Every structure is written in C-alpha cells, then in structure tokens.
Amino acid sequence: MELIWHGHSTWHVTVGETSILIDPFFDNPATSLDPSDVETPDYVLLTHGHADHIAHAGEFDGATAVGTPELTGYVEAEMGVDETIGMNIGGTVELGDAFVSMVRADHTNGINTGYEHDAGVPGGYMISDSKPTQQSDDEATTFYHAGDTGLMTDMREIFGPYYEPDAAALPVGDHYTMGPWQAAVASDWLGVDRVFPMHYNTFPAIEIDISDFEREVKATGSLAEVHVLDGDESFTLE
C-alpha cells in the first residue's frame, strides 16, 4: 500500500491497482501541487463537509466521490461531481482492490456556503486490502484515516481490536481536533505500528511544534513509530 501526504488531511492511497484521494484540499502550505498536477484517482473519499476537506472534490473528472449520502449529494449538486457512492458509519464498500469502512469521528459537519447544508455525520476511514471480519488477519494491511476528530473510546474498544490498523493518520493540530497528547493516546489505543500526524500548521489556529507529538507518543509507552512526512512525500506501508 502506497501512501502520499499532500499536507493538511489530504492523502493519496494506492491499494493494488486502485488509487484513492482523501479530503482533497491543496490550498495548504505543505504541498507544492495544484489539483491539476495530481493524476485523477479512481475514488475521492470525503470525511466531512468542511471547506478544508472538500475544497477540490470537484476537480477530478471521472473520479467517484464517496461519503455520507448527504455529502455526496451536495458535491454532485453543487460541485459538478458526476459519480458518487453514498455510505455511512459502520458500512464497508469494495472499491476496486480496496475495502473501505467508514467509522465514527467526533466533530461537526455543516457546510457553510452562505447557507447551511446538512452533510450528515463526520467520519473516518479504514482502508484495507482485505475485507474486515471478526477473524484476525495477519496478512492484511490496513490504513486508518481518522478525519477530524477528538479522542474517543471507540479507538480503544472497536477500531484497534477489530479493524487492526497497521498505521494511522491522526489530526494533531488541536483547537478543532485532537492535540498532540490526545492524538498520542489515540495511537496507543489503536495499537498501530506507525502513526502519521496531519491537520496541523496549515493556519494559525492549528500551528504546533510537531516534536510535542513525538514526545507525547513516547510518553504513552506506545511502540508506534512516528513518521513526520514532508508535503507530497510518499511512504510504502507493508
């Protein structure tokens, strides 16, 4: 599984022959790319409807947008997206070579475009090369994109033991989401081998010293390895 972080919460994930772009927002200081510079993915996953997560959802002709029915309905009607798949918390859909499960996130989800749109509930995604079941699968590779969220016990009680993610991308910028210490606890509860910070240093309210997160992960006793990627940097998850 190939991962590329394009800054903020924008990730490009490749599973087999299937490419997935999550929360496309290229107006952030970590990336040098415009949407036109990015090869059109097969699917665009949207965690929730805030502008810094859906800003460029309509820029990829031919891609299928995936999210809550309310949010996919919005991007179809207002952003010109032709193909959509609506799903919801707890559901798993097969997208080419990937199995994508939507999981809970604790956040808000209105779309403010001069008037309020209901975007359904916010979520995160478990992306795996194998279908999730109750039976543990040591051969599966699973990446968890938490979306915008606070710390929640579902990470300890459900996400870690049942989805068994190998790696997690967690928001660490505080103010609107988890900060460094909460995200560190989340990485411990999830039991991941690798953790990637995201959703930080994009604008003043979420500016942090990323070494605080690295220190907090160590303080939990977690064995997770912290990977602080540069914008547009790739990582192979095996």
UniProtKB/TrEMBL annotation:
Signal sequence extent: none
Protein name according to UniProt: UPF0173 metal-dependent hydrolase HFX_1354
Annotated keywords: Hydrolase
Superkingdom of source: Archaea
GO terms for MF: hydrolase activity
Domain spans labelled Metallo-beta-lactamase: 7-199
Source organism of the structure: Haloferax mediterranei (strain ATCC 33500 / DSM 1411 / JCM 8866 / NBRC 14739 / NCIMB 2177 / R-4) (Halobacterium mediterranei)
Similarity remark: Belongs to the UPF0173 family.
Record carries keyword Cell membrane: no
Lineage start: Archaea, Methanobacteriati, Methanobacteriota, Stenosarchaea group, Halobacteria
